[in-house]
Amino acid sequence: MGAKRERADAARNRAKILTAAGEIVAARGVEALAMADVATAAGVGVGTLYRRFGDRSGLAYALIDEREREFQAAFIEGPPPLGPGAPGLTRIRAFLHALVDRTTAQLDLLVMAETATPLARFGAAYDLYHSHLTMLIAQVDPDADAFCLADALLAPLAAPLLAHRLRAGEVTADRIKSALDGLLAGFKA
């Protein structure tokens, strides 16, 4: 049985809500993302927002969802080197570099989403990233502890840590990519 289809009016409301929320974030930043303001701008009741998204972090996840789906499609079925067809180490590097770019592009929304609850970061997307890296690491070095190494490679890309380091001027996205490349140099190829 397929996924339940969204009613047409619910789909229109969702689109209006996400458009309004996106405009608020673009104009005033993530800190201005208030449920009541989004509801007013979208022309829906605030209860509709809470029923649909739960809270601000749920709304933040909805705003990042499209870009996340595009990113996942790229590394699951897109062209190499990010997608299948390239050697494992090349794919790991491409994945990590793309994840740095993906995270920095929506950094404030990801910080909000990842800090909503103590374990908010560790949801479906993280688990997929982890599984993907675990598989690739095991291809590159079957003797490695691929499971733990995947976490080690993902750790510096936690949105709150990345935001902290970038805003303090301690690192740039290019420096993070270079450091990740240095870690990958230690893998048996």
Brief account:
Helix content is 70%, strand content 0%.
Structural commentary:
With 189 residues, the chain is mainly alpha-helical. It has two domains: 1-54, Arc Repressor Mutant, subunit A (Orthogonal Bundle); 65-184. It contains ten helices and no strands. It has helices at 8-28, 35-42, 46-53, 56-77, 88-105, 107-114, 124-140, 146-154, 159-167, 173-184. The longest helix is centred in the middle third of the chain and has 22 residues, at 56-77. The radius of gyration is 19 Å and the shape is elongated. 22% of the residues are buried. The mean pLDDT is 90.
Blueprint (SSEs and pairs):
Elements (H helix, E strand, L loop, with lengths): L7 H21 L6 H8 L3 H8 L2 H22 L10 H18 L1 H8 L9 H17 L5 H9 L4 H9 L5 H12 L5
Helix pairs in contact: 1-2, 2-3, 4-5, 4-6, 5-7, 5-10, 6-9, 7-8
